[in-house]
Design a protein that fits this description.
Elements: E1 3-6, H1 12-21, E2 32-35, E3 43-44, E4 49-50, H2 52-65, E5 70-73, E6 78-79, E7 90-92, H3 112-124, E8 128-131, E9 146-147, H4 149-156, E10 160-161, E11 164-165, E12 174-181, E13 184-193, E14 205-211, E15 222-223, E16 235-236, E17 242-247, E18 254-261, E19 265-277, E20 284-287, E21 293-296, E22 304-308
Helix pairs in contact: 2-3
Length: about 300
């Protein structure tokens, strides 16, 4: 039977105490496994390097001396967010930190060679390595997404089915697409649902990205301005490929953005849930739970399709 302990950033002190108390290693009566990771382990955001496999390699001997016979590590495959993914949003099962995908070659934990070295170090210390395997958390590129009418209707129903309120589909995993839009003006309306209406509106933020020229990400962040109530008052979207940040003020609030097509084209809309944190010099516009629901209203959606990325 395995007993499981958790390895965290401050685990080394209690481990040291354990080593002092158990200065003479006695034969283990039961196998003991260490959870050898914690959420958001360190990563080099500048050089795109992960160092966690190296950290574990250096601790193999001390873990063995402490009596551990196995470690549990997160999925080692490349995640959908490259080096910033904790391994549970798998993009490529066969990329263990040796292919340049999703913006980085290494995973959050390091390179494939560092992974191999860590496993060798553990085996040399008589420690087995157990990798977490998640088969149903698979992500794709935007280019690999497909039309998903079921997700589209789920969003329009605000995750409410058969008298039951369900969790919102992750906002950032959806691409809204108005296919083959002809020339003219389009008014994109955004609404929120399953948000904390009792909290400050600073906690009900979102980013909306709209592209109608295949511009790709283009330009810096800008902000929605009020009045903008979806009832004849709107913001003109700054340019194709730009991102606008905004808040949903209340359950009845509707934000509206105008885009003008000079030639026929697909209109691509992506939403990301955000929130404000801190104040003054420490203020930041942070990632929020993507189960905070934001969606493109069904109003005026002739010819619209929805693609689910995840």
């Amino acid at each position: 039977m395995f007993k499981i302990f958790t390895l965290r950033s401050n685990f080394f002190f209690p481990l040291l105490m354990l080593l002092i108390i158990c200065s003479i290693k006695s034969p283990a009566q039961n196998d003991v496994m260490m959870q050898a990771f914690y959420w958001d382990v360190p990563v080099d955001n500048v050089n795109y390097n992960g160092s966690w496999w190296d950290t574990l390699s250096a601790k193999a001997s001390s873990l063995s001396t402490a009596g551990f016979t196995g470690i549990w590590v997160p999925p080692p495959s490349k995640g959908n967010f490259g080096i910033w993914d904790m391994g549970y949003g798998i993009f490529d099962h066969y990329d263990l930190g040796n292919y340049n995908q999703k913006g980085t070659t290494e995973t959050r934990f390091g390179s494939r060679s560092e992974l191999n070295s860590m496993i060798s170090a553990m085996h040399s210390s008589s420690i087995k390595v157990y990798a977490d395997v998640v088969l149903n958390h698979i992500y794709t590129n935007d280019e690999q997404s497909q039309d998903n009418p079921a997700v589209k209707q789920y969003e329009f129903d605000q995750a409410y089915r058969s008298s039951t309120q369900y969790q919102a589909y992750p906002t950032n995993e959806i691409i809204w697409k108005i296919a083959n839009a002809s020339t003219g003006d389009y008014y994109i309306q955004i609404k929120g649902y399953l948000l904390d209406w009792g909290a400050s509106s600073t906690q009900r933020g979102y980013d909306v990205y709209i592209d109608w020229t295949s511009a790709g990400v283009n330009g810096s962040q800008s902000w929605e301005s009020e009045p903008n109530n979806g009832n004849g008052q709107f913001n003109t979207f700054p340019a194709s490929g730009r991102t606008v940040s905004a808040h949903i003020g209340s359950s009845s609030d509707i934000d509206e953005y105008k885009v003008t097509l000079s030639s026929a084209h697909d209109i691509i809309i992506k939403l990301t849930a955000r929130k404000e944190s801190g104040s003054g010099g420490s203020w930041s516009w942070d990632w929020a739970p993507q189960e905070n629901g934001y969606y493109r209203l069904q109003y005026g959606t002739t010819g619209i399709t929805l693609q689910a990325v995840g």
